[in-house]
Design goal:
Layout (H helix, E strand, L loop, with lengths): L24 E5 L6 H8 L3 H7 L12 E5 L2 E2 L5 E2 L5 E5 L6 H8 L3 H7 L13 E5 L15 E6 L6 H8 L3 H7 L12 E5 L14 E5 L6 H8 L3 H7 L12 E5 H4 L24 E7 L10 H7 L5 H22 L4 E7 L7 H14 L8 E3 L4 H11 L6 E3 L11 E3 L4 H15 L4 E6 L4 H10 L4 E3 L2 E3 L2 E3 L2 H5 L8 E6 L3 H12 L8 E4 L14 H6 L3 E4 L9 H11 L5 H19 L3 H6 L3 E3 L4 E6 L6 E3 L3 E5 L5 E3 L15
Parallel strand pairs: 11-12, 11-13, 13-14, 14-15, 15-25, 16-17, 16-20, 20-21
Antiparallel strand pairs: 1-2, 3-4, 4-5, 5-6, 7-8, 9-10, 18-19, 22-26, 23-24, 24-25, 26-27
InterPro entries: LysM, LysM_dom_sf, Peripla_BP_I
Protein name: Amino acid/amide ABC transporter substrate-binding protein (HAAT family)
Length: 659
């Protein structure tokens, strides 16, 4: 196993402002796909100048970030106004504070922080440039035709951009255009511009009952009433803004029973973008419990450097997970979410047995103040995370189990890794939705007869091939398999076994049956360790268009920014454990910033997706704990690339409750 190098770099950016009174400035809002270099070329400035004026952009450029750039027109008092008129760019003088700036410009301290996200966790520095809203001039894009801005709204707890858009009968784009700087979410107490006319008393949504839907282009009211089996009057009762007409981008409030899996706030795969729903800006306290085996509970930089030379697999997993978690803390900070990360060494040792390792967890929790924690991520191993959950249950502190799929559930347990039953059910759901019109052939050994029966319950006409037993494992005669395949319609062969010999036998036989007219797709509900054997050819699996369920996906082009940032920081490509550390920690922080607690976030039905993992927590009706039902269906593409297979939406998808 390669050595793991975790570098901790503390960068203090200092820049000169000696000519600040003469320099003019403009602003630029970063768009998707832009880089610092492309922005520098566009404005004929250097990358250094952008980083000098925007240190927060170094290694963390994201769509919606507003950059200060050279160029613009001056305003009285030494400050500058941006070229588009939206911002005042103020140079902080010695002795100035957030309070003095709020009085000088007649805006709240929270509003200053909203436009300068680093100020949620950093002090105001002499000589730095801060962005402030220019309240004297409202620049409007007339092509969008937003409502007239002549009223202020103070953001209340649990109000979101989507609730506000619904309340005032406007689109998200119009709300963001009227309030530059809210792209990354809202904070309680923010004062924002809104239309004069409102259609509801507040923008708070009863998450357990209602959801939001964003009207698509060319949709009309009749089509929507037909889709949701509602009358026009029922829709207008929930959305009084409809009395003034339906328009594209409008946010509608609807019962979740009508929406099903539809959602207004979607990104890849229908996952909710929590960055648009941030309402709880309080500092988050997160405990990270990992088996570093360093002989102490608190981890510091020197400890981690010394541990690099160790060759312990569990410790290496812990270090990788930890490195990803640190990246998540930085990403959350860029969104204005401040946090305190408390890292504890569980000192796991296999030789100490369950009782010995449980005592270490008990001593760790009893000797430290966990009452302030918003969530605990870890420990990694089954008995340890169960013990931590048991000890913290009385204080209702949520414990997120990071990597093990089967843990004893309790009311404060969040099992983040979908178990095998979830994966199986997701694959069966895909087969049910997409298998109509296919020639379905089931091959299942004696250990997997229940899956065969589930497929037959969905498709009674499915064909079954029964494996034969031998001293070297199970096998099929080629003629038995060939007789079940169709020449005219697509063949879906569902193989349920972890027997290497049978997998090799079936895949080899099927590969010889592929022709121009005969199409074959191989599937399984459980891609076990047998598929990693040298006796099973990946090239053959690729030719068979192999489909299987998975906890995670291989990151694609949309996630390269994280991978590149990680490589710059640590010097190598992140492992799957590092990515999981990032995804889980980032998701936990965003959920806490979008709700009052992880419990509220789960009850709200948030489905989220990040670099390689996605999360949709459902409460277990028996234990009252929460388990992740979000899984992927993957297939082998060209060059053995794992491609995500999109599953059509259906009502109550992914709600697989445990017995």
């Amino acid at each position: 196993m390669k050595n793991i190098t975790i570098l901790f770099v503390f960068i203090f950016v200092v820049f000169s402002c000696s000519s600040i009174g003469q320099q003019k400035y403009a602003s630029h809002q970063v768009r998707d796909g832009e880089t610092v270099s492309s922005i520098a070329n566009k404005y004929n400035v250097t990358v250094y100048e952008i980083y000098r004026l925007n240190p927060e952009a170094k290694g963390n450029l994201y769509p919606g970030l507003v950059l200060i750039l050279p160029g613009g027109k001056s305003v009285p008092g030494g400050s500058e106004i941006s070229a588009d008129g939206k911002y005042i760019l103020h140079t902080v003088a010695k002795g100035e504070t957030l309070y003095s700036l709020s009085k000088k410009y007649n805006i709240s301290e929270s509003e200053i922080k909203r436009y300068n996200k680093h100020l949620y966790s950093a002090e105001l520095r002499n000589g730095e440039i801060v962005k402030l809203p220019n309240t004297e001039t409202v620049v409007v894009d007339e092509t969008a035709k937003p409502a007239v801005t002549n009223r202020k709204h103070i953001v209340k707890p649990k109000e979101t951009k989507y609730g506000l858009a619904s309340m005032y009968g406007i689109t998200i784009a119009e709300l963001e255009m009227m309030n530059p700087g809210i792209e990354d979410g809202l904070q309680i107490g923010d004062i924002i511009n809104v239309p004069d006319k409102s259609y509801a008393k507040d923008a708070v949504l009863e998450d357990s009952i209602f959801g939001f839907y964003e009207v698509k282009p060319k949709e009309n009211l009749f089509r929507l009433t037909q889709r949701w089996d509602m009358t026009k009057a029922e829709l207008i009762t929930l959305n009084p803004a409809l009395e003034d007409g339906l328009k594209s981008g409008m946010i509608l409030k609807l019962p979740k029973s009508k929406l099903g899996s539809e959602t207004a706030v979607t990104v890849n795969g229908g996952a909710i973008k929590l960055a648009d729903n941030l309402t709880n800006r309080s500092t988050k306290n997160i405990a990270l419990m990992l088996p570093f085996n360093l002989g102490k509970t608190e981890i510091d930089t020197a400890d981690v450097r010394k541990s690099v030379i160790k060759k312990d697999r569990v410790m290496n997993i812990a270090l990788d997970f930890y490195s990803g978690a640190l990246m998540a803390i930085d990403s959350a900070k860029a969104l204005g979410i401040s946090s305190n990360l408390y890292v504890y060494d569980t000192q796991y040792a296999r030789g100490d047995g369950k009782a010995g390792n449980d005592r270490k967890i008990e001593n760790l929790i009893n000797s430290n103040d966990f009452s302030k924690m918003n969530a605990v991520v870890g420990p990694l191993l089954t008995s340890n995370v169960e013990k931590a959950s048991q000890l913290l249950k009385g204080r209702s502190i949520p414990v997120v189990s990071p990597i093990v799929p089967n843990v004893a559930m309790s009311s404060n347990m969040f099992q983040s890794r979908p178990d095998d039953e979830i994966l199986k059910q997701e694959m069966l759901r895909y087969i049910k939705l997409q298998g109509k019109g296919k020639n379905i052939v089931v091959i299942a050994d004696s250990k997997n007869q229940s899956i065969k029966n589930e497929v037959l319950a969905m498709y009674p006409d499915a064909k079954v091939v029964f494996p034969k037993s031998s001293d070297n494992g199970s096998y099929l005669r080629a003629s038995d398999l060939t007789a079940k395949l169709s020449q005219t319609i697509d063949n879906w062969v569902i193989l349920e076994t972890n027997d290497i010999a049978l997998i090799s036998n079936v895949t080899t036989s099927l590969s010889t049956q592929i022709s121009e007219n005969r199409k074959i797709t191989l599937m399984t509900t459980n891609k076990g360790s047998a598929y990693e054997s040298d006796d099973v050819s990946n090239i053959t699996l690729m030719k068979l268009n192999f489909h299987f369920p998975s906890v995670d996906r291989a990151y694609g082009a949309g996630q390269k920014s994280f991978i590149e940032a990680y490589e710059r920081k640590y010097g190598y490509i992140p492992s799957s454990y590092a990515v999981r550390g990032y995804d889980i920690t980032f998701d936990t922080l965003l959920r806490l910033a979008a709700s009052e607690s992880l419990y509220d976030a789960a009850d709200a039905g948030y489905s989220t997706e990040y670099v390689e993992n996605k999360f949709n927590y459902i409460q277990d009706p028996v234990s009252a704990g929460y388990f992740n039902t979000a899984a992927y269906i993957l297939k082998y593409g060209q060059d053995l690339e794992e491609i995500v297979v999109e599953i059509p939406a259906e009502s109550s998808s992914s709600l697989f409750l445990k017995d």
